[in-house]
Amino acid sequence: xxxxxxxxxxxxxxxxxxxxxxxxxxxxxxxxxxxxxxxxxxxxxxxxxxxxxxxxxxxxxxxxxxxxxxxxxxxxxxxxxxxxxxxxxxxxx
Length: 93
Hints:
mainly alpha, 3 helices
């Protein structure tokens, strides 16, 4: 028999997991956007470098916290976005 959300200690863990996944997805989306900016700002090397640096920081952040995700479907989505970001960062270097 399953325990309904809000009963017992499980609801807090589910809420934390959901928040963690939303944060990581958002961080990946923002990092991809920073790389878009870096590619657009080719005429301004300083601005391009700042955008790329922010994308790399986002990548590192996700890499640090993705290991805490327990939801298998979310983990697949996150790993896919993370791999695309890694490829883009390598291409951009």
